[in-house]
Design goal:
The complex is a heterodimer of chains A (560) and B (55).
Chain A: E1 10-15, H1 27-35, E2 40-46, H2 52-64, E3 69-74, H3 77-90, E4 98-102, H4 104-108, H5 115-133, E5 142-145, E6 149-153, H6 157-168, E7 172-176, E8 191-192, E9 197-198, H7 199-212, E10 216-219, E11 223-230, E12 233-240, E13 243-249, E14 251-254, E15 258-260, E16 274-276, H8 277-286, E17 294-298, H9 315-329, E18 334-339, H10 347-358, E19 362-365, E20 373-375, E21 378-383, E22 388-393, E23 396-399, E24 403-405, H11 409-416, E25 443-445, H12 455-475, E26 477-480, E27 485-487, H13 498-502, E28 508-513, E29 516-521, H14 531-535, E30 541-543, H15 548-559
Parallel strand pairs in A: 1-2, 1-3, 3-4, 6-7, 6-14, 7-10, 14-25, 16-23, 17-18, 17-23, 18-19
Antiparallel strand pairs in A: 5-26, 8-9, 11-12, 12-13, 15-24, 20-21, 21-22, 27-30, 28-29
Chain B: E1 5-8, H1 12-23, E2 28-31, H2 39-43, E3 46-47, E4 52-53
Classes of the chains: A alpha/beta (560), B alpha+beta (55).
Amino acid sequence: MPNKEENIRIGVFVCHCGSNIAGYLNMEELGAYAETLPHVAFVKRNLYTCSEGGINEIKKAIKEQNLNRVVVASCTPRTHEPLFRSSCAEAGLNPYLFEMVNIRDQCSWVHMQQRDDGTAKAKDLIRMGVAKSALLEPQQPIISDVTLRALVMGAGIAGMTSALALANRGYEVVLVEREERLGGMLNVINKLGPSMADAASFAEEKIKAVQSHKNITVFTKARVTEAQGFIGKYKVDIETESGVKKIDIGVIIVATGGRLLVPEGLYNYDGKKVITQLEAETLLKQGLDKGINNVVMIQCAGGRTKEKPYCSRICCQTAVKNAIMIKEQNPASKVSILYRDMQMYGVENEELFRDSRAKGIRYIKYDPEDPPQVKDGSVQVFHSLLGLKMDLAADLVVLSTPIVSQEGAEATSQLLRVPIDDNGFFLEGHVKLRPLDFATDGVFLAGSARFPANIREAVAQGLGAASRASIPLSKGSVVVEPIISILANEDACRGCGLCVALCPYGALEIRKTEKGRKVHVIDVACKGCGVCASTCYQHALSVNSFTDDQINAQINAFLE
Amino acid sequence: MSKDILVIGGGIAGIQSSLDLADMGVKVHLVEKLPSIGGKMAQLDKTFPTNDCAI
């Protein structure tokens, strides 16, 4: 095996992950096997390598055993590689002399019924990891400046909240809104549940604060048409009525919201006698017509279907709120809510639900297989709890339709190179651990652009996203992973530009040098995906920690 | 004004707040009544819906 150093000393830490790995693989055999591998100087098995005890074992072994490579065979690098790397660094070892082997997600978990085969596969994986680790080279992190200016896309409640939070911390904010007026859906809403505060005055207050803030530049009837760059250094084009503005940006918050499904062709929707909850908000603002004495609301209208399988979450609270509002404006009215399941999460909403029953609002569970029929002046429904067909008089039918993804969400997703899900909503970096970050550094997410959110949630997410975005802004610089593409063999590069065309991050460019046209890697923009290195037919490009030698060593170890 | 921040409670919310603040360059004092931080999260095995290991 080709080694640059004379004395490679590898420490292998085999993690039981409680019973996640140890329950399905023969750990003793794995530990004993690791000891037989070339250059392995130390092997330790831990119940949880990621626990404080496990981490201390790594640090201790690095010092006491003079380890210069560390391999942890455990779970996924997605969640735990940063921790193990920093543990190596704390013990004085370059963190890039660490290699992780996943014997859980792609081994013990998928071979739960095959103890012997699974163990054999884990041995292969460990042997490959050890072979690669021997060739790892130390890397130094890259530090890049951050432009102290944030772009917030969308001036609904989430976007305005983010913009204000950042501006109040002293950062410049560019707020871009597609519509003429700031405020988004807040402009249409009547009252805000559960406190029944007036939406218009709340919106007005926020809009004024945004417009008068010296740190916020607002562009309305505008859209972001170009966003090139990376965390700390984005070049953004904003198309406005007075031409295109080019602005340097450090971080981006996506708060483009969602929109309410307009139920064309559903339940005889006509926007007059059969309306949406949003249209009901407008009616309630104006004051309900005296002639409306019987109102029927239908939940999950156009939602929780085969095409839109998700529950939009906030339509139940909206229906209950509007039902109470109708009762307040006309106490003699009869309001019925036809539902599939009531989604009234949270203490205040539970209370609101109970109050609404006390106020005489009727709840009738319907079966989606036998949905209500909207007739002229009435709604026919099969009461699935009573087993009775009922005819309810209806001067007004209100359909609770779901929030669907924003128009142009796909274009935004392509523009910023961030993912959207099957329903067109943006996908966060991690559902639990990074709920307001995108996987792409420097881009954050708030409000209904992610998933239907009520005002309270949109505000909380707006504040949260601003807080997350403040981290690179307050530091003024970012540390970028050095696992990036490098021009390892400059002489071999012919400047053909194939890699430039294929790079998904715009991280490569052709430059004229004394030796002719050569590719240049913009190191802070590179994500280390390896597309360039694997397509370069001259083998001029390579990726740190994934060099040809290292990958070949892994493959050869597998074939041993 | 002192720029140090006190976070009371070392569960997942307190830990995340502390980390974000520390990343912003603020000195944080995290106070937990139990011998170790982690709270409920540290007692869980896997967390729904991704089944990530909670620890």
